[in-house]
User: Fold Ketol-acid reductoisomerase (NADP(+)) from Neobacillus massiliamazoniensis.
Amino acid sequence: MVKVLHHNNINEEVLHSKKIAIIGYGSQGHAHALNLKESGFDVVVGLRGGKSWDKAVEDGVDVCSVAEATAAADIIMVLLPDEHQPKVYEESIKPHLQPGNALVFAHGFNIHFSQIVPPADVDVFLVAPKGPGHLVRRTYTEGAGVPALYAVYQDYSGQARELALAYAKGIGSARAGVLETTFQEETETDLFGEQAVLCGGATSLIKAGFETLVEAGYQPEVAYFECLHELKLIVDLLYEGGLSNMRYSISDTAQWGDFVSGPRVVNEDTKARMKDILKDIQTGVFAKGWILENQANRPQFNAINRNENNHLIEQVGRELRALMPFIKKPVNEKKEVVVN
Ligand code: NDP
Ligand code: MG
Ligand code: MG
Assistant:
């Protein structure tokens, strides 16, 4: 097993003499800025004027432009959406980087796929929490943390590894566990996980199950509860104690069905497709497609997103969740859903 570092194995002293700029105040940005501030570090947030700016001011953190924050800080953590990072880096970060600064990321995409090429005289490392930003924040306030990976790409100061660990401790991740990786491993496994299992795999499995029941004449509302709603209870059990813990809690009938039918749904064929997906990630085919899609103003992304929002499972789900006000309103339902 690799060495997983915890709170007490990490000395964060090296970071106390540094000023940290958090660029962006979205999902990860607000969590890193607030957690680091409450851990006693010197934090400034770099933004353009707008929604995030107002929120950061409301939260009581120091805010200025991306250029000013970069110029003022020693450690520059880039927490903008990955697809916006290269342009903001060129225009507002690169001109203000000083030798010996640290350029930091929460995901390796832009460095690994050469969308950002940093100068040789700065440290480059990543600290990637393995969970969404709102959990990075919530667990911190509860005295816990979200585990994180760290990796050093370029060690100019000789302190890059120490700084990365101190940063991970500052955002609370060392309370859960911090382990070393490389930019390549973090980037490729992160993309694979979200595509094949966590996001793409899960949504496609849910939709296929829902459609199978509805096409067989069952009520969409019943299919929704069975294929989407109940998944949360199962995932909570998996999170708390792995496969065996989940299987311990379900009925023996469900467990027998799991054993005999699960491998009929996800089988060698599925795994062969997963290997194709991994290959597209490793060879840069996926990255190139996504970069070009953004350059073209996302025609395909937007079209698919519109169709997905109109899927029957989404229509039924919106109606059913409205009857369950105790379910926290998700971020995407606070906005108008575009239907056309
Ligand atoms: P978000 O989309 O939540 O953050 C967007 C932030 O960037 C907003 O504050 C936005 O401000 C700001 N922003 C966007 N464009 C610009 C610009 N041109 N100039 C200045 N500010 C801008 O990003 P995430 O937190 O999801 O992702 C940040 C990084 O963290 C990525 O590298 C991602 O891969 C990584 N990561 C994300 C995880 C997650 O849970 N989301 C998990 C682990 C890693 P405004 O309000 O003005 O638009
Ligand atoms: Mg990701
Ligand atoms: Mg059941």
